Amino acid sequence: MYGNRAEKAVLVEEVLMCNDSALYTMMKDQYANYVIQKMLDVAEPNQRKLLIHKIRPHIPTLRKYTYGKHILAKMEKYMLKGGMGPPTGTASGLDLMGPLTVGPL
Prior knowledge:
Blueprint: H1 5-17, H2 20-28, H3 32-42, H4 45-55, H5 59-62, H6 66-81
């Protein structure tokens, strides 16, 4: 994603405002999943937490899709790095369906 920090935040916010079915469709798509992965990279910390929160209910299904697995790997990276606690049910044997704490916005 090109643009300054504010422009990127606006784009991420647009996707966060979409209904869950649109996000789910993007996560399963062979090309749009890259957009979700990149959003995880460029999102502000609070936006990233909200994005992860919106993705979490879809984890069992995403595990079935090659493209979904890439998103789960990216999520795991940020959850471990961001102090959100280790995700689980991933390659590390943990369970991503555990509680998620979203800090103040």
